[in-house]
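Box 4.2: Ligand-aware structure prediction
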Amino acid sequence: MRILSGIQPSGSLHLGNFFGMMKPSIELTAQGEAYYFIANYHSMTSLFDAGQRRSNSLEVALDFLACGLDPKVAVFFKQSDVPEVTELTWMLSTLTPMGLLERCHSYKDKTARGISPNHGLFAYPVLMAADILLYDSNVVPVGRDQKQHVEVTRDIAIKFNEQYGQVFVIPEPRIRDDVAVVPGTDGQKMSKSYGNTIELFGEEKAIRKKIMGIVMDSRSPAEPKPDADQNIAIQLLKLVAPEAVAKDFEDRLRAGGLGYGDLKKGLFENYWECFSAARVKRAELAANLDYVTEILSKGAERARGVAAEVLQRAKRACGLD
Ligand code: ADP
Ligand code: TRP
């Protein structure tokens, strides 16, 4: 089984990225051949600062490796180091109906939030389809917001295969229900663009402040809270704390007597502990950037090997070669 996923270098990675995409991706590496990449071409649709793209890409690499991605097990690379993907994007785009892209939520959401509606932003799912199809991927671990893009990929691949013969493997999204949508500090989906994130490797004081600022209602500590499972801090605790600890907080909140301040303090402590080993590892990696660059360039070399073969197959099928 081949597993593939990508993440954009568009800002500091947060708990939503980790539990929605990175952790499931890292765990899946035990079940097949994994290809994970930093989607820097994708980031060009909404980030226009070259220096920031470069530094974010490095940060994402550090974050992913610090969180336990083993470069001996997974092929880890930067998207633009395999430029074959842009060639395949063009080929796929000629079989992509406009209506298919017009229906994509992500484009509508992003333009509604003020990102300029450039062609790349609109055509973004075709580049993502090329990412997936270029490696004969079977499984794509992503958060729920990316499901539609994997469905678009399937539609394009089926169309291509019908038109030009069996070229592409039809991929499947892999979405873990328990972490499909990680809530942010305001209760909406945690997202860089909503300003409601808890970063994986933020500065202690800043993160503590964010966690203490999680929006709660005005019920008194003594009041029992039958809806304890809906509480944002409880939902986050279930992700970062051992099961028994999260359950204890939830039970105490439900029964009444646990104040929101103490709950948030508990969340901060468990969050900090959850990433403490990764924090140490990240500092080690940051002090050894040559090693990180080397991982990415070796990854790119391996990825290009597979990409070249699949691209060749596609070119032959459609009469380019
Ligand atoms: P953001 O919304 O912060 O810009 P991205 O769109 O770059 O995040 O997401 C990168 C990966 O992380 C995707 O697979 C996405 O589904 C996942 N992801 C992001 N935010 C969340 C969240 N709040 N809950 C679950 N998964 C998420
Ligand atoms: N579009 C994805 C996101 O914003 C990132 C991505 C690009 C991706 N190419 C991919 C994810 C291929 C999975 C497979 O999160």
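In the box above, the bound molecule is tryptophan. The domain at 2-182+289-317 is CATH 3.40.50.620 (Rossmann fold).
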